[in-house]
Every structure is written in C-alpha cells, then in structure tokens.
Design goal:
alpha/beta, Protocatechuate 4,5-dioxygenase, Chain B, 8 helices, globular
Length: about 240
C-alpha cells in the first residue's frame, strides 16, 4: 500500500555543481525538494521506489546501489542509489542511472536516507497512461508500506526562451498538475492528456501517472511546496502523506 509520496522535478541543475554560478537561482526549489523527501523519511516506509522519466519506451529497473553521474554535464559528481552497493546478482546492477534517477539519488543522499531499501524505475516517456497506472498499482501492492519518490518536470513551453518555446496551453496544463498534486487527486493525474503532454515536452507525465495508479484508494493528503517555471519549465515539489 502507498503510504507516502514525494514529487520533485529532475533537472540536473538541482545539483549545485552542475548549476555552478546559477546555483542560487534554484535554492528555493532545492529546499522544497528536500522538504518533500523529509516527509518520506518521516513516513518510515518498508520499500522506496524512485520513479523518473527515461528515454526508452518501456520500463527499466535499477537496484539499490546502482550508480549514476553528472559527468556528461561537465562535473565529476557521482551518486549511488540508496547508498549501499548492489547485492550480488542484482539485475541491471551495472547499468548507470538515467539522469532523472540520478537527481533522485542525489536528493536521497542529501537527506541521508537509511530508512529502507531503495529501487529505481525508469519509465519511458511514451508509455501509455493505462500501462503507467497499472505499473503504479502493482508497486503499491508490492509491500505493506510503500513510498514513491516521483521525479518529473511539467511543460517546457512556458516562455519564449523555454526549451520548447512558448505554447499558450502550457500554463493551463501545469496549473492542472499543480492542483492535482496539492489535493492528491489521482483521477486528475490519470487523466492527463498524453498527446498534449508530449507536445508541451512535459517529461513528468508518465511518472505522475504511475503515482496516480499507486495512490488509488490510499486516502493520502497532498501538499504543494513549489510551483514555479524558472527557465520556462514547470517545476513542482509536493508531498503526499
């Protein structure tokens, strides 16, 4: 059963070394993300899954101890999911974390996570909503006390200088996501328009719909801690408990 969730954006710029001189611009976002992760610590789950967008169309699992780095962004920073080395024979233990899960691992390191085992799940951005919801339901049913750290951005079309340029539909899309996160509205997340999300370059659509499936019937309450669009990209930090 899902007992808690945190939602955070996944730009590598969250890592100060990557952001370099621009790091202070995202201090408020980092604080909100760490606050959301702190709620997971307080919930004391028996199993934590970090869910984030990944390029392949399907699903990719990553065991505790899987490593990732930000070297492709010009900094020699390495992270390890959950801190411990992978157990012998763990599937995909040698495969590097996608950047979204690497950012999640970095947040968990900052929070000094030692509450429970941690796993990663990379979700292909084109994965259909029905499949995402099904995956979420299975995650929630996998243990008595499950928590999710959901990594994903909103639209990337909020301003003229945004990665996807300005799209007048982006603000309304992000507002609906923010409302759903604030009220833990799983139905609204499940109903996000896949085609529109793709057109708006919303990298968090699939992970959010995994959350929608996991949160069905859990009776969680939501709290939105951050809702802004620096650099023209919608970023949210929220916690459900």
């Amino acid at each position: 059963m899902l007992i808690a969730a945190a939602v955070c954006p996944c730009p590598p710029l969250l890592v100060p070394e990557v952001a370099a001189g621009a790091a202070p611009e995202l201090d408020a976002l980092r604080a909100a993300c760490l606050d959301a992760v702190a709620a997971l610590v307080a919930a004391r789950p028996g199993r934590l899954i970090v869910v984030g967008p990944a390029e392949p169309s399907g699903l990719g699992t990553h065991p505790q101890g899987a490593t990732g780095s930000f070297r492709s962004f010009g900094v020699d920073v390495e992270v390890r999911l959950g801190g411990a080395a992978p157990t012998a024979g763990a599937e995909d233990g040698g495969r590097p974390l996608p950047s979204s899960l690497a950012v999640g691992a970095w947040l968990l390191e900052r929070a000094e996570w030692d509450v429970s085992p941690v796993e990663g799940l990379g979700v292909g951005e084109p994965l259909a909503a029905e499949r995402c919801i099904e995956v979420g339901r299975k995650l929630a049913a996998s243990a008595e006390r499950v928590a999710l750290l959901v990594m994903g951005d909103g639209s990337a079309c909020r301003t003229l200088k945004a990665p996807g340029y300005l799209d007048e539909r982006a603000a309304a899309f992000d507002a609906e996501v923010a409302r759903a996160l604030a009220s833990a509205d799983t139905g609204a997340l499940a109903s996000l328009d896949e085609e529109l999300a793709h057109e708006l370059k919303a990298a968090g659509r699939a992970p959010l719909q995994v959350l929608a499936g996991a949160g069905e019937g859990a009776g969680l309450k939501g709290e939105l801690r951050y809702d802004e669009a620096p650099y023209g990209v919608g970023y949210f930090a929220a916690r459900w408990a």
